[in-house]
Amino acid sequence: MERTKYQEGVIKRYYEHMPEIMRQKLGELVTELYLATTDKKREQLWKRVEQALKNLRVPDAQIENLISKADPALLATFIEKHLGAI
């Protein structure tokens, strides 16, 4: 499939800004975790958190630690300390 120059630019900018996009997404997920009312919803959100952290190349041991504790406050602190302010 041929891409236009415009499409190539959009794709390039997306990957250039992926860390910022993932940090923003993680911040939104923290909020959603606090507001989640069911265990099923929380489980889905933690899976999304895990994927976002993997996209940011956070070491697996840190990801496993955060996911196993399932604490939105701990996740928020981790994001602020290790990934920069959102």
Question: Can you tell me about this structure?
Answer:
- The chain is built from five helices and no strands.
- It is an all-alpha fold.
- The chain has one domain.
- The longest helix has 18 residues, at 18-35.
- The radius of gyration is 15 Å and the shape is elongated.
Outline, from the CA principal axes? Answer: elongated
Tell me the series of helices and strands, N- to C-terminal: HHHHH
Helix content: over 70%
State Rg.
15 Å
Mean pLDDT: 92
List keywords for this structure.
0% strand; elongated; 86 residues; mainly alpha; 5 helices
List the helices and strands and how they pair.
Layout: H1 5-16, H2 18-35, H3 39-55, H4 60-69, H5 72-82
Concise synopsis of the structure shown:
The chain is mainly α and 86 residues long.
